[in-house]
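Predicting holo structure, iron/sulfur cluster bound.
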Amino acid sequence: MEKELSASKAGFPCMRNLWYTVNGYSTEGEANKRTQRIFDVGTCLEPLIVEWLRQDGWTVEYNPGSQEAELKVEIPVKGGTITGHPDCIISKGTIQNALVDIKTMNDRSFGEWKKSGTLKAKPQYATQLHIYAMGLMAQGRKIEHLGIVGVNKNNSEMYIDFFSYDPFRAENIKDYAGQIFTGAREPELGCPAESWACNYCEFSETCGLHKKPAPVVKGGEPLTLTEDESIIAAMHELRQSRELAREVREMEAHAKEVLNERVRDKGLRGIQGGGLVFTMTERTSQKFDSTAFKEAHPELLGEYTKSSTSVVYDVKEAV
Ligand code: SF4
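Done. Tokens:
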């Protein structure tokens, strides 16, 4: 039987998973159901997002459906074929003939992708787009840009990240697919560095490589393991908010550095521009020196120390 690998799957960061996929292993359980539901939500929202693109002035050649889609690509490689159905070709102003795929993402994923770009944050999407581009260009279509139209499922923000077609990347994709098609047995490369991959893997039981994180013990008791999505989402939010807070502190430090250099050091006490007013006020504050007090009056420290209880929230990767 001819082996096939779909463009949307080809960038999955585990060669072992792809080997199971092209060799017809059956998918399993909850991870597969969850992946399918995420995919179904994206498919339902696609026509609406195409409409939003048109409202934003983009000319959109939309390729709905899958098996019956008009635009199809088939790229023969050693041992099999890479196949796919591109979503859209869009044009507006200086951006013409941009081949794009529509992706819906949760808040955390959208934020990371928007900040770092597709090539860094979602290389699997770049692989998918390169396959579509290879196939369409082989059919004589002009493709000038590649891109991802991302929509944040939490707040409906839409953003487009464009990137260039890279012929070396395209060749590597074909070589890699050839290795998967012709591999006599599943590759033994261990779990991928991308921690999400094993969690979303539909072959994790067949594979057997993915170990659940070791239980963490606190106060002599193992912590309760949860699959409650609202709790997991809240943990992700806490981690993301900590990262955002760090970024905000860095932004503030940078702004103060510029203002010190350009305003304060010139002896100005304020300045106006760009619809904003910036002023500086000097304040003297008193601070209790607890270290000096401790050294001078160690006997009084206990007498004037009060206990209070607060909760410290922490979140980190399970290993
Ligand atoms: S469980 Fe992990 S290592 Fe095994 S096939 Fe899936 S993604 Fe690859």
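The chain is about 45% helix and 20% strand.
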